[in-house]
Design goal:
Length: 383
């Protein structure tokens, strides 16, 4: 395992108690920024390995891993020792689980009063649903976001809004804010990050539009949800798609010029009574040629018109290549770290850690001798 090099968080130590998606994404972002992220994996990860059909877990890039049986008192003690030397701990268990394991906030803050304890859940640490199971789709359903995306029926926006945007990304912001506060005050704290809160926050502008009467509570009936014919997606003759985002009049003018149309043909941009006819006209025009044709037509035009790329296509686009938006590490093409820093640039992501690949190294840094490690491994406390 090769940890990430460079980045603004050099010297910051993060302890991650292995969990699914969002907490792991948070740890990856912090590792991309140069933090030393130590991931505590559970024994079954070392024994069974990753599911073969899922491929490499890129969320583990740039981290190091130790496998610990947290249900054993000596295992919990190792976590507390690591927490004592960390700036932050992140975990994604249901409320109360880490307390039962002896590594909850009170246990860890007693060892390290400056520790920031980041908690990632779907429903939050309290509330009538806090103990109930759920996944991204459930959390964004109750936050009002899922019900606002799609057409006749809601459309699942991958697991980006809850897991990663409203979950892991906001947890990372919360952890960093906590670290800054700890530097200033000397006191750590608990960060309660939930996907229902976070996904709702991502829609804050739209709730404002709704309150102001400028947003319909119907799907595909607004400026930014596909309702406007100049902010939506059209199918081309080769069954691919073009994305149109010509919101402002100057971009709208470039759009209709590129389509070979005129203002007389399409009517007033913001007259909703003409949107249905405008959509039909745009759809029939885009359907006459291929996606590549339209990409060439709009190349160089400020019309906010671009091709809809598939994941396999995106790394090959000239703009993405010029910016190195995607990088190749050990034969795996993947998004590179973002955002970018001028004085402390991020390094290239590390290879994803494997469960237990740094167990001996991590225990050695805590003062455990090789004989101690052998004993712990023989008792199935570490792997």
């Amino acid at each position: 395992m090769t940890p990430s090099k460079g980045g603004p968080l050099g010297g910051v130590r993060i302890l991650e108690l292995a969990a699914l998606g969002p907490a792991s994404f948070c740890g990856m972002v912090l590792a991309d920024f140069g933090a030393e992220v130590t991931r505590v994996d559970r024994p079954q990860g070392a024994i069974k390995g990753p599911l073969p059909d899922l491929g490499p877990d890129l969320l583990n890039r740039g981290k190091r891993s130790i496998v610990i049986d947290l249900q054993h008192p000596e295992g919990a003690e190792i976590v507390l020792e690591l927490a004592a030397k960390s700036d932050a701990l992140i975990e994604g268990f249901r409320p109360g689980i880490t307390e039962k394991l002896g590594v909850g906030p009170a246990h860890c803050l007693a060892r390290n009063p400056r520790l920031v304890y980041g908690r990632m859940t779907g429903w939050g640490q309290e509330g009538p649903l806090s103990d109930r199971a759920g996944h991204d789709i459930d959390f964004i359903a109750l936050s009002g976001v899922l019900g606002s995306i799609g057409g006749d029926d809601p459309v699942v926006p991958l697991n980006l809004v809850g897991d990663y945007g409203g979950g892991g990304m906001l947890l990372a912001i919360g952890v960093l804010a906590g670290i800054i506060s700890a530097i200033a005050t000397g006191r750590g704290q608990v960060v309660d990050s939930s996907m229902i809160d976070g996904s709702a926050l991502l829609a804050v502008s739209h709730f404002g539009f709704l309150a102001g009467g400028s947003w319909s509570d119907r799907r595909a009936d607004n400026l930014l949800d596909g309702g406007a014919p100049f902010y939506t997606v059209y199918r081309t003759s080769d069954s691919r798609h073009i994305a149109v985002g010509a919101l402002e009049p100057k971009f709208f003018d470039e759009l209709i010029a590129g389509l070979g149309l005129s203002r007389f043909d399409v009517g007033d941009q913001y007259d909703r009574t003409g949107w249905s006819r405008m959509r039909e006209l745009f759809a029939s025009t885009f359907a006459q040629n291929t996606r590549d044709h339209w990409e060439e037509v709009f190349d160089g035009r400020d019309a906010c018109v671009v091709p809809v790329l598939r994941m396999a296509e995106a790394p090959k686009h000239p703009h993405n290549k010029a910016r190195a938006t995607f990088v190749n590490v050990a034969g795996i093409t993947q998004p590179g770290p973002a955002p970018r820093f001028s004085a402390t640039p991020n390094g290239k992501p590390g290879i994803p850690s494997q469960a237990g690949d740094s167990t001996d190294l991590i225990l050695g840094s805590l003062g455990y001798s090789p004989d101690d490690v052998d004993r712990l491994r023989g008792q199935l406390i570490v792997y």
